[in-house]
Write a structure and sequence with these properties.
10 helices; four-stranded antiparallel sheet; single chain; alpha+beta; elongated
Length: 353
């Protein structure tokens, strides 16, 4: 009996031990499953795209980071029906920079943004794109009845066809109740396209535009005043370097106008194809005039023939680079660092004197 009792005493703890082990394993599995479930829910909440809410207390809001998702279309053949379908929603990537851009110039990029409307808003709202150098831009606004309304923008189109005559691209944003809507932007551009997208009230846009164009007027007005002054000096003393300086100032002004969109708005609105070439051409002319001005002031042709030939060599090299970029190597046309060579040449010769 003692033997049986001892066996029972030894058996019971083993049974309890097995039950404890099973209970621990079950608890651990439950904790893992619970933690996994919480992790999935948390990750989904974190990964969810952040919508921007329309509020009358804020006149403008710049989309950035998690408020913009993007998808790269290497084929350039995807349509809005495909992009907006459930099959492609998961293919959008999270934006990790302040303002995304088209890192691959050969691809088409789709951007997705969400806006929560406000039916009680008393303001008229707009979407503005700051980068006016984008070649082709399509903005897709959801319709209450389904589908999308397409707005075509970009400097591939004549300026006079824009609904809002402003150097930046602007799209109306009518309020549709208090719901959250998803908008899509399709971008294709030969040069870098910075997606700086701003939600603005119409009143704020008008105030901002007036101030902006006012300072543009001061800047370009100063260029005209300096040019007119040097023209009078050229007429008075008949020295060519005044004429070269006038051409330099004008080319710098034209380059700046092509870069900020003022040139397309006022000088060549019916020739959108020139927008791509204008910055590079005017910058080339500006550096060439700078070389001519410096050579004329220093009188290199008569006094320092070696330096004059050096300037001529730099000019021919820059001209050849421009010719090759326009004909053989189109990707070279966007290399702006090449303009430092003429100015380094001028700096080198100036130090010698």
């Amino acid at each position: 009996m003692r033997h049986n009792n001892s066996e029972r005493l030894l058996t019971y703890p083993r049974q309890f031990l097995i039950l404890d082990i099973l209970e621990i394993e079950t608890s651990m599995r439950f904790n893992k499953i619970f933690s996994l479930g919480v992790g999935i829910v948390f990750s989904l909440r974190v990964a969810a795209q952040k919508p921007v809410e329309v509020r009358d207390t804020i006149d403008q809001y710049i989309f950035s980071y998690s408020e913009l998702d993007f998808l790269e279309d290497a084929t350039g053949k995807l349509t809005i029906d495909q992009i907006s379908s459930l099959a492609y929603q998961a293919q959008f990537k999270k934006n990790t920079v302040q303002h995304p851009s088209n890192t691959n110039k050969n691809s088409t990029y789709w951007f997705r943004l969400k806006i929560k409307h406000n039916s009680h808003s008393k303001k008229t709202w707009l979407i503005e794109f700051f980068d006016q150098t984008i070649d082709h831009l399509e903005f897709y606004s959801p319709l209450p009845s389904g589908g999308f309304e397409t707005t075509l923008l970009g400097d591939d189109f004549e300026f006079n066809k824009r609904k809002v005559r402003h150097k930046n691209f602007i799209v109306d944003l009518p309020m549709q109740g208090d719901q959250e809507f998803t908008y899509y932007v399709k971008v294709k551009s030969q040069q870098k396209a910075d997606m700086i997208i701003v939600l603005r009230s119409q009143g704020w846009l008008f105030q901002y535009a007036l101030d902006e164009y006012f300072f543009f007027g001061i800047f370009y007005g100063m260029i005209l005043v300096f040019s007119f002054y040097n023209l009078l000096m050229f007429i008075a003393v008949q020295e060519r370097h005044y004429l070269y300086y006038i051409l330099y100032l004008v080319c710098v002004g034209l380059y700046q106008m092509s870069a900020d969109g003022i040139g397309f708005e006022y000088l060549w609105p019916q020739y959108p194809s020139f927008n791509y070439y204008a910055p590079g051409v005017f910058l080339y002319l500006a550096t060439s005039c700078a070389l001519a001005f410096s050579g004329s002031v220093l009188d290199l042709r008569k006094k320092y023939a070696a330096f004059f030939r050096f300037f001529v060599g730099v000019f021919l090299f820059r001209s050849l680079f421009l010719l090759l970029s326009l004909t053989v190597f189109p990707s070279w046309f966007g290399f702006r660092f090449i303009e430092i060579i003429p100015f380094l040449a001028i700096y080198f010769v100036s130090i010698y004197f």
